Amino acid sequence: MRNVFPILTVVAAIVLLWYAGAVWMNSAWTLDRADGPLSFGEVVRDTMSQDRPRLPAPHQIGAELYDTVIDKAVTSKRSLVFHGWVTLRSTLTGFALGTIMGILMAVAVVYSRTASMTLMPWAIISQTIPIVAIAPMIIVLLASIGVEGRAVPKAIISAYLCYFPVLVGMVKGLRSPDAMQLDLMRTYNASASQAFWKLRLPSSVPYLFTSLKVGIAAALVGTIVGELPTGAIRGLGARILIGDQFGNPIMIWSALIAAAVLAGVLVSLVAVMQGVAMKRMGFAR
Amino acid sequence: MSVIEASDLGLTFQTNDGPVHALSKIGLTVEKGDFVSFIGPSGCGKTTFLRCIAALETPTEGTLTVNGMTADEARRNRAYGYVFQAAGLYPWRTIAGNVRLPLEIMGYSKAEMSERVKRVLDLVDLAGFEKKYPWQLSGGMQQRASIARALAFDADILLMDEPFGALDEIVRDHLNEQLLKLWDRTEKTIAFVTHSIPEAVYLSTRIVVMSPRPGRITDVIESPLPKERPLDIRDSTEFLEVAHRVREGLRAGHAYDE
């Protein structure tokens, strides 16, 4: 509970700054429309309630979130729960795909010098290419080989961002046993697969979970980016795009907040899984 | 019957600064049931020699047999248990799980495993700690668990590389006493690397004194001490005489004004 006070202080400071920013940024539009001179109070009141504010005030986003999350039926195209679910599904698929890819590649890199020299440079290059440039190509390519719909391409784009932290973390994790522990395996005349399952893999678990926390956030970003340039009409990315096209900042911001909350929940879930796994494996003290 | 036989053994590491002679002309025979200590300053090759016996290093000259086979054949036959300087227990395994590790690798049956785990944990006085994790144990207890791990399978040679080097003297005395009892009960052949003169004299039937550059044997001392050794034997004249001879050997082989 000791942490609550400092956290709330920071939140309050952000909200205050936000309100100040809203007044400052939205006042131009208020003054443009004014027939005569306005008092400061009148300006502030107007900046808080514009339909298309440059920077929506927090309570406007709160109201929009309440409307689109709580009030709307979850099956409605205007419900953020519906769009969030679409994004979540792709994120989790991409996360699973990326994690498996990352782990398999890490095993290859650790056990084969050739793989290490050929895979790693490409893995690094893959992360320097802007995902927005690659995303449309993935969709076009998949469509041309007959993959319909948005779900698969989105998951692949998501996996594309997600596998890298897993790969890097797992390579480090699988290489974490020291010379003495490897020697010990040698004194038992353990086979390579025994050394993998009994030493390298368990040693890598703490590294894996750290990577998964980065990976799941990357998977979410990947999904949202995958929804942006592809003309999707469902998902949080699509909400952002539609909000942009229709000049509706409140919609953009509420989708952003929803995405941020979703990311927070996902990372926390992985952290909880990490806690349970570490405790069961005896790492926790 | 001799268990370990080395003759004219040499090991030269090729480094960027030229060849390093880690071992040179090592000749030694270890009989079954011996407790042999290797003592010498750092760089004398005592650990390297132990690692050669374990086939963790490959000698570049001479011959070395373990149980009548080459060292690597002996390793593949699981002829020895090795205790490292650090306990090196797996943090994700309980104490019982750690002791079970070699048994799992060697494919013992479930019943056999639990029987052996219980027996060796009793042997090192760790009964009741089966379900604890390594971090819940003191350093001395962890090292005892690692000895239990090396005893769990049927190797009649125990190779120990400064196993008590990181422990304080009180714990070390206690473990030395326990190790002697254990050696007496299990009748294993023990090769023990140390840099402590009292430890070497207290434990061993033979003390091998080594010196560096190149790593070689300068003296082999047969201990006149009886097999039964209470801790206060260390104040006896015989003990002090052997200790003195070891010290002389170390001094002769190592010029301190270098």
Task: Give a quick rundown of the structure.
The complex is a heterodimer of chains A (285) and B (258). Chain A is mainly alpha-helical.
Account of the protein in words:
The complex is a heterodimer of chains A (285) and B (258). Chain A has 285 residues and is mainly alpha-helical. Chain A folds into two domains: 4-55, no CATH class; 80-280, MetI-like (MetI-like fold). In chain A, 79% of the residues lie in helices and 0% in strands. Chain A contains eleven helices and no strands. Chain A has helices at 4-33, 40-47, 58-71, 80-111, 113-128, 131-144, 151-174, 179-187, 192-227, 236-245, 249-280. The longest helix of chain A is centred in the last third of the chain and has 36 residues, at 192-227. By secondary structure, chain B is α/β, with parallel strands linked by helices. Chain B has a domain at 1-79 and 157-163 and 191-258: 3-Layer(aba) Sandwich (Rossmann fold). Helices cover 36% and strands 27% of the residues of chain B. In chain B, the strands form two sheets. In chain B, strands 6-7-8-3-9-10 form a six-stranded mixed β-sheet, with helices on both faces. A four-stranded antiparallel β-sheet of chain B has the order 2-1-4-5. The termini of chain B are far apart. The A-B interface holds A 180-181, 183-190, 194, 198-199, 202, 205, 281-283, 285 and B 54-56, 75-78, 80-82, 84-86, 88, 90-94, 101-102, 104-106, 133-135.
